[in-house]
Amino acid sequence: MLDAARTLFERAATPSEVSMDQIAAAASVGKGTLFRRFGDRDGLVRALVEAKTTPLLQEIESGPPPLGPAAAPAERLCAVLAAIVDVKIETVALSLAHESGTSSPYAAEGYRATHAVVASLLTELRFSGDAGIAAHVLLAATRADLIAVLVRAEERTRDEIVDGVVGCARALVRRDAGLE
Fold this sequence. Notes:
The structure is a single chain. This protein is mostly helical. The protein has helices at about 1-10, 20-25, 30-40, 40-60, 75-90, 90-100, 110-125, 130-140, 145-155, 160-170. It has one domain (about 50-175). The chain contains ten helices and no strands.
């Protein structure tokens, strides 16, 4: 069921093009089976997002550099933001569905965990402002709706987007913090 839904979202121009009826047909199950397993469309989308983001979160929490905790804070901050952009580019329609669902993407466990890491890194880098708010600002630059505009409407490359997001991170921290 998840594979069928993932394929439909990957092929969709917008998340609204993907219905539970289409997912059920592609998975060769009844629509009721989807609802019993996932509760609703948002539950299915959350399961798909978790399947994609869990390995990334594990690498951020305990993996090797540049994403893991042993990396220098500046290197890690840039790597974390770049990895999030990569996931959003790879899964833009799915990410749009997740971020526009009935539950807030900011309440998702993955967002909270990533936010905590980014805020902690900003603190380590001696960011002089509110690291929690700054982390939200940086992560807002990785939202799927923005990524969709950058990729689809503005035809920006992955490198242009990553450079822009990382550039924002660099601008937020002091020069002596090691990001420049």
